[in-house]
Design a protein that fits this description.
The chain is of the alpha/beta class and 451 residues long. The protein is 55% helix and 9% strand. The longest helix is centred in the last third of the chain and has 18 residues, at 317-334. Bound molecules: adenosine-5'-diphosphate and magnesium ion.
Length: 451
Amino acid sequence: MDLEQMWQSTLGEMEVQLTKAHFATWLKNSRPIDKKDDTLFVALQSNFAKTWVEEKYQKNIIGIVRNMDTSVKKIEFVVGNKNISFNKAPSEAKDPQAGASAELDFNKTDPETGLNPKYTLSSFVVGPSNELAFAAAAAITEAPGKKYNPFFIYGGVGLGKTHLIQAIGNELIIKFKGKIKPKYVSSEQFTRDIVWGLRNDRIESVKKKYRDVDVLIIDDIQFIGGKEKTEEEFFHTFNALYEGNKQIIISSDRPPQSLPTLQERLRSRFEGGLIADVSYPEYEMRVAIIKSKLQEMNRKLSDQVIDLIAKKLRKNIRELEGVLKKIIFYEERKQTDISVKMAEEIIEKATQNLSKRVNDAQILKAVAEFFSITVEDLVSHNRRKEVVEPRQIAIYLLRDISDLSYPYIGEKLGRDHTTAIHSYEKINHEINRNPALNQKILTIKDIIYKS
Ligand code: ADP
Ligand code: MG
């Protein structure tokens, strides 16, 4: 029986066991890639699917597969779409689903450099929240590898990290007329390359690819932490480049000292360079960003509408941009100038979608579902390990998503408020240290927002 047939039969059995929605969400687009020794490799379409399938279906799937082929002892799930093949380096296979780089438009991204020309320094609006990061970026484009090496930029989602580090790469290509070779890579892509190299005895060529560049840009390094082999390779690559006076640029969602899974030696390397953060833009800057985006799109909006958008969207430039595009789209469709009232409605709807006004029951249900327990288990006094962690996560999410008070959360789960505080803080602390926990929580959030 070939791999494809075996996997189709497996899916057939899983389809019977799962609800239609679950099957479609988690397994439908899965695909067998390879079998090596006793391990079957299966591609799933997202990190979410991977976490979910590993947590819930792994054992079951192994059982089914082993009924057909007893030589299989393990299944490894990888993230990728149908173009991924193990005969091909993963970077050659386009994978628009992959993590952070999904934000990049792959049609316009140069496969060689990983750079998308739409990100430029001149389209980056500078203000108090990103001044230092911008100044460092600009200095690096003057003399890469000389000053500010490594350059470490950190901050929350949608605050311009990818934009800025991509812009450095683009600027260097223009300024040095292609004589300086930058390479941008998400840390997921980097990890996949390393894993691929190790698995296919091609690690030397993967290493060479990374060590041949003049400027290495790695986005969202927080996703590397904890994967030992990748971290090891990254460390060596880092050293090789650093010693060759090559520029290294790294982004992260938190500062180096809060990347505890990262090896100490790596963290201290980061701390030896320049560290700059990007934080929330203030009102004036949000207005400037809106105006700059409008100019890029060749559009106009009234000052009142611009003011409204800037006042309502404060914490994430990507969301701000999304709302702006919605308003423009609406205007185009209706062929009328947008009034403040119309804009208000669009914003209200869009921001509601963003936080989705999730209710408590949905959160509890999603957590219970993820861990295969019941909502009753969550609110019960059961102290079994299988229930304690899910309960803490439920408390964490009630606070994190819905911003509910501790006494309310405590009551909801039949606990007092100190337990609620303790649980929240515990998870909040661990999330930074434990990538697996972080991924679980992201997956549960994804389920909540999709429901
Ligand atoms: P991050 O990588 O920090 O999550 P991104 O760099 O992807 O954020 O930025 C999200 C969106 O917001 C992008 O479209 C980017 O162009 C835009 N953006 C962020 N900061 C700025 C800025 N200072 N000026 C102009 N656009 C910005
Ligand atoms: Mg980013």
